[in-house]
């Protein structure tokens, strides 16, 4: 579904992504791991159009999407969430979901003046859709809470809910577990699995929690220093000597292997 070919993203002399080549197959929950500074989030930002690549190509299916802006990728069904949730704090949780679909009738002055019935009908449908999403994510009880008042884990669920308000095909999740307690993290993981199995979502997930990756992701890709080191099941990747060295360093790797 997503194919990345020899992708580079440089910041001056620093090569954040340095010739990465990888594929994300349709229908998978792909885990992306690696030590801090490996280039994972930069890779996400380039794929999702927030940063232009220095060189290399990105494809979605057979279509090249290299350098397309986020709003165009949004309409193609490619969405990205962030390590720190980007909610609209003064709006309710339900309102945060309702505002996601593009080209709503109320955005146009003519409709606001002369087509109020059309706007009411559309808002009713959006409200029903938002309530369906909240029920799916088991957070209906916070629908009317201001988004600024809910917990970090609940904000991550709301971000996931936003992807359900549109026709998402592939979603890039950046550290869904950051600042989230174990119970809510399991809830998030269960929702990801249900979206994958029941609604055909494809996911790519950056996460440092290896238990989460091992439970929900297959395959797993490991990056280090801007390059792809290994790909396979979680056990295959964790036992790859290049991965051990990237996480632990050469000296500790020798101790682990020789233990």
Describe what this molecule looks like in 3D.
- This is Lipopolysaccharide export system ATP-binding protein LptB.
- One of its GO terms (cellular component) is plasma membrane.
- One of its GO terms (molecular function) is ATP binding.
- There is one protein chain.
- The protein is an alpha/beta fold and 259 residues long.
- 41% of the residues lie in helices and 22% in strands.
- The strands form two sheets. The protein has a six-stranded mixed β-sheet with strand order 6-7-8-3-9-10, sandwiched between helices.
- Strand 1 and strand 2 form a beta hairpin.
- Helix 10 packs across helix 11.
- The C terminus is likely disordered.
Mean pLDDT: 88
pLDDT below 50 for ≥5 consecutive residues: which ranges? 251-259
Alpha carbon gap, first and last residue = 41 Å
Q: What amount of the residues lies in strands?
A: 15-25%
Count up the helices.
Answer: 11
- Rg over C-alpha atoms, rounded to the nearest angstrom: 20 Å
Q: For this structure, what is the CATH homologous superfamily of the largest domain?
A: P-loop containing nucleotide triphosphate hydrolases
Structural class: alpha/beta
* CATH architecture identity of the largest domain: 3-Layer(aba) Sandwich
Largest sheet: 6 strands, mixed
Which fold name corresponds to the CATH topology of the largest domain?
A: Rossmann fold
Number of domains: 2
Helix content range:
40-55%
Strand/helix succession: EEEHEEHEHHHHEHEHEEHHH
3D shape: globular
Question: How are the strands of the largest sheet arranged?
Answer: 6-7-8-3-9-10
CATH class call of the largest domain: Alpha Beta
What's the number of extended β-strand segments? 10
